[in-house]
Amino acid sequence: MLGLGGVLVSLAVTVAVVSGIREPRRIAALTAAMCCLAPVLDLVRLGPIGMLPVALCAVGCLVPWRFRGALIGAAAALQPLTALFVLHLWVTGRRMAAATAAGVLAGSLLVLPGAAWRFWSFWTGRAFDAPERPPLAESNLSLLGMFHHLPVPALACWAVAAAGLLAVWARMVRRLPPACAVAVTGLVAVLVSPVAWPHCLVWVVVAVAALVADGRTAAAAGVWVLFLPWNLPPVMLGALAVLVLLAVGLPVRPAAQARVVM
């Protein structure tokens, strides 16, 4: 029950902040729709911690609060793939907040070095022996997981593809509306991570809400339908994540309209 309540609270906060909706009934309706998505249903089973870093990143990037950097640092301490949001703050011009986020993350590693090291090494290290762990290789939907399904040197291809995607991301987030930039950063973090499981695609919630905020309701509905619980294999979910990334990131507004929240 606590897991469900935690997911719902974090989900509602994320929907409200990203979509910009202020009417409680519309927030409740959109939150209820998000509860039908497969990654959200997985989070209910796994516990509330997976949704909390998403809410912290949404608030930290989109709400003009002096301690926004601390929220991003706390999110990265809870879930390693959200560490990309430290760079998100930096490349979008919020250098002081990025430094604060990095400091909070480093502090968490110093305060709880044993637990933090075990968590981060589990997140990264398990991915690199995936060929020897068939269940892990099959459930990994990141770029590395997708390359493991192809007759190519997976690590080398992943390194090149991840570097290229990060280079494109760094240019893209400067031009996107702030809500879309947050969604793009979350999706890129999932794809470039050494390992990502289906519940990590909870960033689809941010993508749908960002498309609603940007007035692209048809695209938002299409993304929502794609991630209903169709029981698709993880490698296909990874491919769908790339499509969502393109849907959110390519129809870019002029730079003058894509203002960053300072």
How would you characterize the overall build of this protein?
With 262 residues, this protein is an all-alpha fold. The chain has one domain. It contains 15 helices and no strands.
**Percent of residues in helices:** over 70%
Strand content: under 5%
Integer average pLDDT:
86
Structural domains: how many: 1
- Biggest sheet details: none
Radius of gyration: 17 Å
SSE series? HHHHHHHHHHHHHHH
Give start-end ranges of low-pLDDT stretches.
254-262
Report how far apart the termini are: 37 Å
What is the structural class? mainly alpha
Tally of DSSP β-strands: 0
Q: Tally the helices.
A: 15
Inertia-based shape = globular
Subcellular location: Cell membrane
InterPro entries: GT87
Organism: Actinocorallia longicatena
Membrane topology: Multi-pass membrane protein
Labels describing this entry:
262 residues; mainly alpha; 15 helices; 0% strand
Short structural description:
This protein is mainly α and 262 residues long. It is 71% helix and 0% strand.
Topology:
Blueprint: H1 2-19, H2 24-34, H3 38-46, H4 52-62, H5 68-78, H6 84-91, H7 95-111, H8 113-128, H9 134-139, H10 143-147, H11 154-175, H12 178-192, H13 203-213, H14 217-226, H15 234-249
Helix pairs in contact: 1-2, 1-4, 1-13, 4-5, 4-12, 5-6, 5-7, 6-7, 7-8, 11-12, 12-13, 12-15, 13-14, 13-15
Membrane topology: Multi-pass membrane protein
Pfam families: GT87
Transmembrane segments: 44-63, 70-91, 97-120, 141-170, 176-193, 233-252
